[in-house]
Specification:
By secondary structure, the chain is α/β, with parallel strands linked by helices. It has helices at about 10-15, 25-35, 70-90, 100-110, 145, 155-170; strands at about 1-5, 55-60, 95-100, 125, 135-140. The chain is globular and about 40 Å long.
Length: about 170
């Protein structure tokens, strides 16, 4: 599972599919293609033929928040949808959290209790929770991160390949 922040106002909110129609989506889908999770390197709109293999993309918040900054109330209101998605997607073994917000939402969705100290987000962070998928931290593929080199294609590919390795070698949870 790839877990993002929220639908982008000029991307998913416009196209009807998360990480489609904006530069963050372009960066992510190209990486999904390079690592074998997608059948094509681009995603322009919901009917463009993109097919994911062994992957599911979703978001912590279900609406495009102003200034791309969801409120705690939006996060908490949308959390049950993420929890339900995880229940319906039986066999998820790894969750790639794109950014600290997604990491925090995934912890809230998967942890059976409040973890102290709270596991910190970081690119390449890995967290195993009892009876839950492994969480993998990855910088968000926003222009702010990709244009500055904070997140490179090689870095994103490495996290996705780690997710694949976990999925292929871990027993179903």
């Amino acid at each position: 599972m790839i877990f993002g922040l929220a639908p982008a106002a000029h991307g998913a909110n416009r196209t009807g599919r998360v990480f489609t129609g904006d530069r963050s989506g372009d960066f992510l889908v190209a990486a999904l293609h390079r690592t074998g999770f997608a059948n094509q390197p681009v995603s322009l709109h919901a009917g463009d033929g993109l097919r994911l293999r062994d992957a599911w993309i979703t978001a912590a918040v279900r609406c495009a928040p102003p200034q791309n900054r969801p409120t705690p109330a939006e996060r908490d209101t949308c959390l049950p949808y993420a929890v339900r998605e995880l229940e319906l997607l039986c066999g998820v073994r790894a969750v790639v959290c794109l950014g600290a917000f997604a990491w925090d939402a995934a912890l809230r969705a998967l942890a059976t209790s409040v973890l102290r100290p709270r596991p910190r987000f970081g690119h390449g962070a890995e967290l195993e929770l009892s009876g839950a998928p492994v969480l993998l931290g990855c910088y968000h593929p926003s222009q702010q991160n990709t244009f500055t080199g904070r997140l490179t294609p090689t870095m994103l590919d490495a996290v996705l390949l780690r997710a694949r390795a976990i999925a292929e070698h871990a027993p179903p949870r």
